[in-house]
Amino acid sequence: MQNKNFTINKQLNQKLITHLNKLQDRYSKILPIRIDIHYAKDDEFNTDIETTKKEIMYFLYQAMQLELDIVGYAVVMEFNQNEHIHFHSVFYVNGQKSKNTILFTLHRNVHGMN
Q1: Residue 55 contacts residue 45 (beta carbons within 8 Å)
Q2: Tens digits of per-residue pLDDT, 5-18?
Q3: Contact 73/92 with Cβ under 8 angstroms?
Q4: Cα 85 to Cα 77: distance, rounded to the nearest angstrom
Q5: Closest CA to 52 of 21, 30, 84
Q6: Cα–Cα distance between 73 and 19 in angstroms, integer?
Q7: Which residues of the chain form beta strands (DSSP E)?
Q8: Residue 20: exposure state from Cβ atoms within 10 A (0-12, 13-18, ≥19)
Q9: pLDDT band at 3 (very low <50, low <70, confident <90, very high)
Q10: What is the dihedral angle through the alpha carbons of 24, 57, 53, 23, rounded to the nearest 10 degrees?
Q11: pTM higher than 0.85 for the full model?
């Protein structure tokens, strides 16, 4: 199913496919975990790009601290027509080492991000 209002960025799409292919060359089983991050319209981080980048880096740092064997990740930042910032991210976990059910939470840290 294709969204008529969305055009795929072919260059970005190819980079993501190449990244995944390189991971598949090295690891026999990869578990992707997709996380989408959206900000409310009235959120102070909605339009402050630099602060939002710092926050997403903190989010990635938190994810890397989990007891998952994360072997790669990709994050794409997008804006909609109203300059609403949102992120699409995927973490690639080594499926040979992560055979149990995975439950985790990541928390937004508003303090200390400046």
Answers
A1: yes
A2: 677 889 999 999 99
A3: yes
A4: 7
A5: 84
A6: 9
A7: 30-38, 70-79, 85-94
A8: middle
A9: low
A10: -10
A11: no
